[in-house]
Amino acid sequence: MRAQGENLNAYHAMSNTMEGAVWLGSIRVAAAVDNPERQQAFVDTMRDIVSDILKVGGDVRLAWPNPPYPARGHKRADNS
C-alpha cells in the first residue's frame, strides 16, 4: 500500500523492491483515511485479490503477516 497524492494505491510486489510491481487498485485517501474500517476493507480486498491470483497456480492460499511489515524507509510513500 502506498499513499500517493490523493490516493491510497495497492501494488503486488516482491518484498524487497517495487521494481516490477503490479498496480492492483486505488481508493481516494479522503474516503479511506477518515474511516479505519473502510481502509481495512480496502486492504483486505486487495489482499484477497492477490491471494486469488496466486491460488490459481496452486491450491495454497497466502497467510498474510499481522500486522503487515512496514515498507523500507526509502520505499515509503512520497505523497507525490
Task: Give a nutshell description of this structure.
It contains two helices and three strands, in the order βββαα.
Structural overview:
- The chain has helices at 29-32, 36-56; strands at residues 2-4, 7-12, 22-28.
- It is an alpha+beta fold and 80 residues long.
- The chain has one domain (2-70).
- The two termini are 14 Å apart.
- The model has no long low-confidence stretch (mean pLDDT 75).
Ordered list of secondary-structure elements with their pairings:
Blueprint: E1 2-4, E2 7-12, E3 22-28, H1 29-32, H2 36-56
Antiparallel strand pairs: 1-2, 2-3
Secondary structure: number of strands: 3
- Please tell me what the overall shape is: globular
Give the H and E element order. Answer: EEEHH
Number of discrete helical segments? 2
Low-confidence stretches: none
Distance between the termini: 14 Å
Mean pLDDT: 75
Biggest sheet statistics: 3 strands, antiparallel
Strand proportion, as a percent range, falls in 15-25%
Estimated radius of gyration: 13 Å
Provide key terms for this protein.
single chain, 80 residues, alpha+beta, 3-stranded antiparallel β-sheet, 3 strands, globular
